Amino acid sequence: MKKVSHISRKELNLFSKNDLDFISHQENLKDFIGLPFSMENFSEQVHLKKNSFDQEKRNVLTEVLSEQYQHLNNNNDLAIDQINRLKDSNTYTITTGHQLCLLGGPMYFFLKIIHVINLSKILNEKHPENHFIPVFWMASEDHDSDEIDHLHLFNKQIKWEHNQRGAVGRFNNEGLEDVFEHLLSLFNEERREELKVIFNTIKGDNYGEAFMNWLHEIFSEKGLIIIDGDNKELKDLFKPIIELELKEGFSNHSIQETNEKLKKLKRKTQVHSREINLFYLTENNRTRIIKSEEGFNIGDQTFTLKELLALLNERSDRFSPNAVLRPIYQEYILPNLCYVGGMAEMNYWAQLKGVFEKANLPYPLLQMRTNLLWMDLGTTKKIEKLGLTVKDLFEDLPSIKKKHVQKNDTAPLNDEEIARGLNLLETSLRASSSEQKNLDAWIGSELKKIEKSIDQIKSKILKEKKKNHEDDLVRIEKIKDALFPKGHLQERHQNLLHFCNRNSFQSVINDLSIAIDPLNNDFTIIAEENDPK
Asked: Would you say the pTM of this structure is higher than 0.70?
C-alpha cells in the first residue's frame, strides 16, 4: 500500500524566491515569459497557437511521426490514433523533453513524462472542445555522451562503455547488452524475468530508435507520443529560422538583451548563448558553426554565407539547434501549448522570450514539473520509530540530529534560562561597578570569556547527550543518505529501477501516475506502508 502526502515547497529550504515565482507566482515574471500558467489561460494559448500553426505543418508532422512509429510493432493503436488526430486544427500538444539517458537516468525523467500525461488528461476533461496530446521530445541530437551513458542504482554507478562521438541518437547499440546483463544480476529471479522483457525492447538501428522503442513500451497505453527532431522533413520546416540565424544571428542579440534585464533583477541566466546558436551535424560529429571574418567556420572548413545557405537548402538535416534554438525548433514544428520542465529548464526558457518574438512564435505556457520523494517500507518504519516527520528529513543532517536529541532529552538545556542568568549577572556586576567607569571595558571582556565558556560547556553537554542517542543518530544518518543520496534530491540521483526490488516496474509507473497531480504545487511524498489486515 502506498500513502501519498504533500509538503509545501515554500516550507522547504530547497527553492529560492525566484524558483517559487516559477512554481506559483508567474505573474512576477511577465517580462520574461508569456501567459502565466493557469488552467484559465489555456483557452487564450489555444487562440495564439491556432493563428500561428498552419495545416502544412500539421500534415508534415503527422507524416514524420507515422514514419517514426513504423518500426514499433507493439501496442500501436492508441499512438496511431493520437498521431492522426494531430491533423485536426483543434488538437494540441503538452510537451516535455530530456536527454536520452541510460534507462532514463535519474528518476525525474519519469516524473516529467507522467506530469505531461496527467496534465493532458485533465485538459481533455476540462476543455472537451479541443484534444490534448502528451509529447516527449527526444534530445537525440545532443552530443554530451558523459551525461547519458550511466545511471545510479543500489549505490553503484552502472556505465555504458563505448567510444562513440556525435549526436547520441545516432550511436550504435554495441555494449548495451552487457549493461543489461549486469543490471539483471542485481535483481531476484522474479524481477529479472519482468525486466528482461523491458530490456529486450531496447533495440533498433541506432540508440535513438532503441530508446524510442523502450519508452513506447512503457507508456504506449497512456497516449504518450515520442518525437525525434533529428529528421530532414522537420528541419525543412524549420529552414526559415535557420536561415535567419545564419544571416542575422538574431537569437544571440535577443538573448543578450534579456540577460541584462535578468542580471539587474539578480535572476539566474542558465544557458550560454553564442554568436551563432547552431551546430553542423554529420554521422560522427556535431560541430559548432562559428562566425568569422571569412564567413563561417565548421571545424577546419570555411564557408561563405551563400555556400552555407545552399547547403541548408540541400541538407537541412545537417543543421542542429543548440540549447538556445532547440525550444524554438520544438515550438515551430509542434502545435504546443505548454512546456513542462525542471527548474534549470525554467531558468533558460526565461531567457528566450525575445528570441520567440523575433521568430514570430507564440511563447508557450511553462510549468515546473512535479518534485517527488519515494520512501520504501523499511525507511517508512524507521522514520516512524524514530519519531521523525518526513519534513524533518529535508533539513541538513546536523539540524535533524540536534532536533532528535532535544526532543528525546529528559533534562534539556534551557537556553532561555541560561541567557536570563547571564543578563542578570551582567546587570548586577555593572550596577556594582557603576562608579568605577574604568572597569567597564574589562568587565565586558571578562563577560565575553564567561559566555564563551558557557558555550563550550553547552557544547560538551550536548556532545555527551548525543552519545546516549548514538544508535538513533546513526540510523538517522543512514535514512538521510538513503533518501538524499550524496546530498542530492533522490529524484536527481536514483534510477527508477531502485524501487523495483519490492515492486514491479509497471506498478512503480502506475503508483507515480496516481501520485502526480499537475495542479498541486507542493512536494509529493510516496510512502510504502504495510497493507491493512
From this structure: yes
